[in-house]
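Request: Mind sharing a record?
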Amino acid sequence: EDEWLRAALAAGEPLCTVLSNHHNLHLAGNWYDERCSETTYGFVCQKPQDTSKPPSRSFQHPVPDNVEYKSRSYKVLPGNMSWYQALQACRDRGSELVSITDTYHQAFLTVLINRLGAPRWIGLYSQDEGDNYQWSDGSDTVFAHWDASEDEEDSVTGECVFMDVSGGWRRAPCESPLPGALCHVPPP
């Protein structure tokens, strides 16, 4: 532990968490502890849960079918469907299966999927048994957010990709039914 952290904990000073938006892709999206009194950051602070109140659930605040974020328009498609059906359903609505090309959209979509409480197909797929992946809308594949268990499970197969409720990307056979998809209108 850092000296300042030990001193802050000993003094009972509350700690806050900083989410890095550093321009370096490898640092962006990382979480760091910081004193809440620090004035150079915006903070999300933690406080004990009020156990006299019931926890909030996403069904009390339903996710809309169309969501805007940073000049991107997303569509949430419900219903059991294969990756191919999801791709066609998005195209029928004038959109594409979502491509995720940076940490900001990854973080936004992670929260969205978590609120939905079920995985959704995204536009990433492979044509060579998982050696290489590409986005169905032709976006560059410069960003990835594979679920950590993908590296641990040698038996994981599949050439199509979905986002699980923790935001990780996972492979599955393209014909597997999932409870929906995420579409977007690609930027011009």
